[in-house]
Design goal:
By secondary structure, this protein is an alpha+beta fold. It has one domain: Jelly Rolls, CATH 2.60.120. 31% of the residues lie in helices and 37% in strands. The chain has six helices and nine strands; from the N terminus they run E-E-E-H-H-E-E-H-E-E-E-E-H-H-H. It has a seven-stranded antiparallel β-sheet, with helices on both faces. Strands 1-2 form a two-stranded antiparallel sheet. The longest helix has 20 residues, at 50-69.
Length: 221
């Protein structure tokens, strides 16, 4: 596991991510990011065609555009061969978004959960306890649309993506952190869901210097 740290509105936010997930530079130059991503996919996935790697880069760039609009502070991609079907690529995206929230209600998480529920939708909403506090869990499947092919032609495509989120209030109840994972590779979904669970259990709002050790190490231990 590798540690990811930072401050959000003056609040320390610490969490751990498995090494198989590689962080994406959300604020870097898009052209340089595309070149690096294509080179990484090509070297990591030996035998993958240029079109396969290009499609992965395209999907990543579409995701980054959406994440920037959603207040993402962290994103990482997992790219491996499927264990059940080795020729097939298995990918997943792990993201962390921070959003403004007004949690002044007597039971604020219930209000958050009620706002996330959609009548008639297959979206599932529940609650869970983590070391960093009580959280709202969200799970659903959505259609993701890609407006262009890898060679730039306008030929819209869509694919089914399963995603799960853990919504944790930050101290002070003025912001929420949304830890999410998404993948269109359903045979590996149980593994990716377990990754999100581990990441959520590693979250801490206490800086290491304040308690003489690593909060992540303490949680994982």
């Amino acid at each position: 596991m590798t540690g990811a740290t930072g401050e959000v509105g003056g609040t320390p936010l610490y969490f751990s991510v498995p090494e198989v997930f590689q962080e994406i530079d959300l604020d870097g130059d898009p052209a340089e990011r595309v070149r690096r991503s294509f080179a990484r996919f090509t070297s990591t996935l030996r035998g993958a065609t240029p079109e396969q790697c290009g499609n992965l880069v395209l999907q990543q760039e579409v995701m980054i555009g959406e994440l920037r609009e959603q207040g993402a502070i962290y994103a990482a991609t997992c790219l491996v061969r499927s264990e059940t079907e080795p020729p097939r690529l298995s990918t997943a995206q792990l993201t962390v978004c921070v959003r403004e929230a007004n949690l002044d209600a007597e039971q604020p998480l219930i209000a958050v959960a009620d706002g996330l529920r959609m009548p008639g939708s297959p979206r599932e909403v529940a609650f869970a306890e983590f070391p960093a506090g009580r959280a709202v869990l969200v799970g659903e499947e959505v259609d993701v649309h890609l407006p262009y092919t890898v060679d730039g032609r306008s030929r819209p495509r869509s694919h089914r993506v399963r995603q799960a989120q853990v919504v944790l209030p930050l101290p002070g109840n003025r912001k929420i952190a949304v830890f999410g994972i998404s993948s269109q590779c359903l045979p590996e979904w149980s593994y990716y869901a377990a990754v999100l669970n581990d990441v959520a259990h590693s979250v801490s709002f206490t800086a290491p210097s304040e308690d003489g050790g690593s909060p992540i190490a303490a949680v994982l231990g």
